[in-house]
Amino acid sequence: MSKTILVVDDSSSFRTVVKLALQKAGYAVVEAVDGEDAKGKLEAHKPNLIVCDVNMPRLDGLSFARFVKAGPFKFTPIIMLTTESQETKKAEGKAAGVRAWITKPFQPSQLVDAVSRLCM
């Protein structure tokens, strides 16, 4: 059975790029437009891993990561895929429970490698 990845990004074109790379690698993908939307999809889809942007409307990625880690999905690995590259943001992500940080623009193979390492 394929693993399910929840992709959370407010850019539909960016979600498509990520989805195609992950589907090509054999993963099932569920998309969410921001952290609020993603909260509703956690229970329904029980993802094995989350790929999330930092800057989004309604609920940003770091707040969403804190929400995930405070609940029943606290062991679900989270990869941040973002334009943010400051060490302070990365430290905030690590404190929120983020397992990997990939900066945009990125190589799809780099994302697939990180997903396969964290999605056991």
Describe the secondary structure blueprint for this structure.
Layout: E1 4-8, H1 12-24, E2 28-32, H2 35-45, E3 49-52, H3 61-69, E4 78-82, H4 87-95, E5 100-103, H5 108-118
Parallel strand pairs: 1-2, 1-3, 3-4, 4-5
Helix pairs in contact: 1-5, 2-3
Report on this model:
This protein has 120 residues and is α/β, with parallel strands linked by helices. It has one domain: Response regulator (Rossmann fold), CATH 3.40.50. The protein has helices spanning 12-24, 35-45, 61-69, 87-95, 108-118; strands at 4-8, 28-32, 49-52, 78-82, 100-103. Strands 2-1-3-4-5 form a five-stranded parallel beta sheet, with helices on both faces. It starts with a strand and ends with a helix.
Our count of helices gives 5
Global morphology: globular
Q: Per CATH, what is the topology? A: Rossmann fold
* CATH architectural designation: 3-Layer(aba) Sandwich
Task: Return the average pLDDT rounded to an integer.
Answer: 96
Report the C-alpha radius of gyration, rounded: 13 Å
Give the tally of structural domains: 1
* CATH class term: Alpha Beta
Overall structural class, as computed from helix and strand content, comes to alpha/beta
**Low-confidence stretches at least 5 residues in length (pLDDT < 50)?**
none
What is the string of SSEs from the N terminus onward?
EHEHEHEHEH
The proportion of residues in beta strands is 15-25%
Assembly status? single chain
Strand order of the main beta sheet, please? 2-1-3-4-5
Number of strands: 5
Distance between the amino and carboxyl termini:
12 Å
The CATH homologous superfamily is called Response regulator
